[in-house]
Amino acid sequence: MSDFERLKALDLPAAHFAVFGSGPLLVRRIIDDANDIDVICRGAAWEKVQTLGPTEYLDEYDVTIVSLDDGRLTFGTRWAIGDFDIDELIDTAEIIDGLPFVRLEHVVAYKEFANRDKDRAHIAAWRAYDHSSSQTLTK
């Protein structure tokens, strides 16, 4: 089962979460792989996620997460890098293959801010991507 299929199987309320980080690039095949799938949550989605696994406080980012499937799925109520309005990210998410994904302009803004090696590589891949394509993973 793919990470996206596993996320779908959790049956979280779509109005209360969205895939962020590298996930929106992965689903569009802009990148080939991601270390994990990062999911921002609020309300009912966060309440449900906390029943699925233990919460963990990450001191370096001052954020609490729930990590499932050996870290393949990571959930949190805020984004630790940059200044993002989680409600806006979730409310404006695009539904792709039945899951909400943060819009690419927000993903690119985050990756430009983080400016790590992988982020620079992801931005280069995004720039080379055919933005008129609707190619997404359907596994």
Short account of what is shown:
By secondary structure, the chain is α+β, with helices and mostly antiparallel strands. It has six helices and seven strands; from the N terminus they run αβαβαβββαββαα.
Structure, explained:
The chain contains 6 helices and 7 strands; from the N terminus they run H-E-H-E-H-E-E-E-H-E-E-H-H. The chain is 35% helix and 21% strand. The protein is globular and about 40 Å long. Helix 5 packs antiparallel against helix 6 (117-128). The protein has one domain (3-128): Beta Polymerase, domain 2. Strand 6 (94-96) and strand 7 (99-101) form a beta hairpin. The model has no long low-confidence stretch (mean pLDDT 89). The protein has 139 residues and is of the alpha+beta class. It has helices at 3-9, 23-27, 43-50, 86-91, 104-114, 117-128; strands spanning 17-20, 37-41, 55-58, 63-68, 73-76, 94-96, 99-101.
Q: Main sheet, how many strands, which sense, barrel? A: 5 strands, mixed
Mean pLDDT: 89
User: How many angstroms separate the termini?
Assistant: 9 Å
pLDDT below 50 for ≥5 consecutive residues: which ranges? none
CATH fold field value: Beta Polymerase, domain 2
Overall number of structural domains: 1
State the shape: globular
> For this structure, what is the CATH class?
Alpha Beta
Query: What is the beta-strand fraction?
Result: 15-25%
Oligomeric state as shown: single chain
By DSSP, the count of extended strands is: 7
Instruction: Please give the count of helices.
Output: 6
Strand arrangement within the widest β-sheet reads 1-2-5-4-3
Helix content: 25-40%
Helix-strand topology string = HEHEHEEEHEEHH
Rg for CA atoms: 14 Å
